[in-house]
Design a protein that fits this description.
Blueprint (H helix, E strand, L loop, with lengths): L9 E7 L4 H10 L6 E8 L8 H5 L3 E4 L5 H14 L4 E4 L8 H6 L4 E5 L11 H7 L4 E8 L9 E8 L6 H24 L1
Parallel strand pairs: 1-2, 1-4, 2-3, 4-5
Antiparallel strand pairs: 5-6, 6-7
The protein binds 5-O-phosphono-beta-D-ribofuranosylamine.
The site of 5-O-phosphono-beta-D-ribofuranosylamine has 16 residues, from α1, β5 and α6.
Length: 192
């Protein structure tokens, strides 16, 4: 595994598709002394992703790949990551599934945050599923990305209580709050 050496932080890219609250949170985390990572690149598959505003706000390089030509875009993405000397990738609400080859190339260097207590509720609509099943507990998971969706080795999890008054939106808000604590904690756990 890569290690941060001395004061040199690990060059990291964050991949997003939407709001980017985890992105913003990770940028803020990266600026504190104890953070082992620096955020050097933001990738989005959507031009309209709200989170892209943080690239401008924090003056971080951004690049959009719409993956319409999947092979070509993934290849160009790999070239860009190499050019920018990216050593570590954090997926944060990134809605594209990367190829097995790409994941293999970055083996052990891509992590993701998922809004459920994996292995429960892989994929989409996790909060809706948890409420429908009358679960009392849900949460979030940071895990390594493997070729199988939401199935890589778990790094850290945080539980969140579901109240009978919760709906998917209120639960998402509660879980997101914990995600913002969990993602930095997982990064510290990896490199600390
Ligand atoms: C988060 O709930 C994350 O767990 C999931 O997508 C959502 C992204 O939210 N993978 P944001 O864009 O970071 O606000």
């Amino acid at each position: 595994m890569i290690k941060s050496i001395g004061d040199k932080k690990i060059k990291t890219a964050i991949f997003i598709s939407g709001t980017g609250s985890n992105l913003k949170n990770l940028i803020k985390f990266s600026k504190i002394k104890k953070s082992p990572i620096s955020i050097n690149l933001i990738i989005s598959n959507k031009r309209i992703a709200k989170g892209l505003r943080y690239a401008d706000q924090f003056k971080i390089k951004k690049k959009i790949f719409n993956f319409k030509n999947f092979k070509k875009d993934e290849k160009n993405l790999s070239i860009l990551l190499k050019k920018e000397k990216i050593e570590f990738i954090c997926l944060a609400g990134f809605m594209k599934i990367l190829s097995k080859e790409f994941i293999k190339r970055f083996n052990g260097k891509i992590i993701n945050i998922h809004p459920s207590l994996l292995p429960k509720y892989k994929g989409l609509n996790t909060h809706k599923k948890a409420i429908k099943n009358k679960d009392k507990l849900t949460g979030c998971t940071v895990h390594y990305v493997s070729a199988k969706l939401d199935s890589g080795k778990i790094i850290l999890q945080k539980k969140v209580k579901i109240s009978t008054k919760d709906n998917p939106a209120s639960l998402s808000k509660k879980v997101l709050k914990q995600e913002h604590k969990l993602y930095p904690a997982a990064i510290i756990k990896i490199f600390g």
